[in-house]
Amino acid sequence: AAAVAAAATAAAVTAATEAAAVTAATEAAAPFPRREREAGRERRKRGSLVAEAGQPDPSVPMSGVSCSGCGAELHCRDSAAPGFMPAEKFRSLSEGLDGAEGLRGAVCQRCWMLAHYGRALRLELPAEQHRLVVSAALRRPLRHGRGPLLLYLLDVLELPDPVLPQLPALLGPDVPAAGLLVVGNKVDLLPADSPGHLGRLRQRIAEACAQAGLRRAPLVDIRLVSAKTGFGMEGLVSRLQRSWKCAGDVYLLGATNSGKSTLFNTLLRSDYCKSRAPDVIDRATVSSWPGTTLNLLKFPIINPTCDRIFRRQERLKGEAAKTEDQLSTEEKKLLNKLKKAGYLVGRVGRTFERQKPSTVIDFDPDMLSYSIDEDPKPASKKCEQREEFTYNEVKDARWCYDTPGIVKENCVVVQFILQVLNLLTDKEVKLVLPTTAIVPRTFILKPGMVLFLAALGRVDYLEGEKSAWFSVLASNLLPVHVTSLSNADAVYKKHAGHELLRVPMGGEERMKEFPPLVPQDITLKGIGTTEAVADIKLSSAGWVAVTAHQEEKLLLRAYTPQGTTLVVREPPLLPYISTVRGSRIPGSAAYRTKKPPSLVENLKPTGRR
């Protein structure tokens, strides 16, 4: 028996080995690698999600109810129009006892796909439509006898902001704006290259405002925040309550993808809104795709009375005296998550949070008693009533509005962002747009060397007497490849669309439809080995800060996709970024990366008394 068992075991092992060999041979002989086949299955799966999402019904009238995620009017008439909801879902919500009221709080198919699958459905919506919505909102009749405060949000990664020079024309002489507050967003993504880097960023924004000619609406202030991690948000709320109080409405303006909806959601859970607003107002849909918000969203602003301001200041003082060790487990968990996401972190709290009533349990003894011949009866589900504001709560309210992102006409920078994102797949967009703290990557190049940033940008060092430093600031998921000038074209032809350059992905077939890279020559003069002379902005993919010896002349050639304009930013955004690096890797042009520590705002450092 033992001999038979041993023989059976040996036969099984042999069979398994042969099966593994056959599988390996099959994989090797397959026309496409397994990874590409899996990617194809994933694309087909994502496509089926859209196909199976639901069908339109042109005979059903518009609802008159806005999507709680993007603000578009809900309907089931046209799947390519904003606010579309599958006909089956639309009818199930609108044909009940409440009629159209059953749609309140619902989201359109596009917001649903963005929130649950990270997929942006294409809409037949001209860019001018966003501008018309914003323009009409700003020209509303005066409420409470005073014009609105304009809170303009810009992405510090995109400086110089492409829409800021357009703002005076958008406002025009007939917009009664009472003030302008400019907010630089996404500062959490930028590493600190030197002490006082935030003050330098603020100065750059002030210079951009002056160049844009923002004179009609008085500039109230310039603030730096991260709507995602909460850095600077408590200070922004305090500034709004001190200077603007509750004098009029507030409009959030800015270019597409600047973070307005994220700021709207953060303000919604802060002391800036009425205490019941988070229970009544739905959060705006947030995604990496530009143009997510399609119409106006709003929440009521709380009246900052003297008593409320005092109570708020007491809360802030108490929180600032805490150390990280004194936080609750949930607070520590959230704080650690935010630290991984950005360099600058803040804690947004609420002073006037409404005490929710305790849950009342209906006890029915008859539901617990049944005979041996009967099955238990399921408890009847009561329809949950959606909370709404009363008339008295909002009759004199001032509102904070989230508006659609502005796309500048004939603006090459914004047009490029839209063109590239429309060409990229969902996975590629997530690789290109940075969502966590950017870790600078520095390389030392000699003349005759080339740096690739994925397959989206390229910088050639053509002429110069000495080596120069090239610091890449882009999404940490985008690869950087350094090669010689003689091999550069061959590297791009062979690896564009594949793993080495990663984006775009999809092989030769994908690259046939992607715009070719076109060159632009750049001449720079170094100012020192520790200070960059300029940033070469490679479209929405990121930028390269160039540092060279003093008075050293450099001839560079930079490439971006056809139809775009490359931006040379002088002075650079982070001039001392080349010093944020580790030791040089032996036998390589690269330095080891160095990630600066995160800074938590309004929290006492551990160990300090």
Automatic annotation (TrEMBL):
<dbReference type="Pfam" id="PF21516">
    <property type="entry name" value="YqeH-like_C"/>
</dbReference>
<dbReference type="InterPro" id="IPR048422">
    <property type="entry name" value="NOA1/YqeH-like_C"/>
</dbReference>
<protein>
    <submittedName>
        <fullName>NOA1 protein</fullName>
    </submittedName>
</protein>
<feature type="domain" description="NOA1/YqeH-like C-terminal">
    <location>
        <begin position="470"/>
        <end position="570"/>
    </location>
</feature>
<feature type="domain" description="G">
    <location>
        <begin position="250"/>
        <end position="300"/>
    </location>
</feature>
<dbReference type="GO" id="GO:0005525">
    <property type="term" value="F:GTP binding"/>
</dbReference>
<feature type="region of interest" description="Disordered">
    <location>
        <begin position="24"/>
        <end position="62"/>
    </location>
</feature>
<feature type="region of interest" description="Disordered">
    <location>
        <begin position="587"/>
        <end position="609"/>
    </location>
</feature>
<dbReference type="InterPro" id="IPR052807">
    <property type="entry name" value="Mito_transl_resp_regulator"/>
</dbReference>
<dbReference type="InterPro" id="IPR027417">
    <property type="entry name" value="P-loop_NTPase"/>
</dbReference>
<dbReference type="Pfam" id="PF01926">
    <property type="entry name" value="MMR_HSR1"/>
</dbReference>
<dbReference type="InterPro" id="IPR006073">
    <property type="entry name" value="GTP-bd"/>
</dbReference>
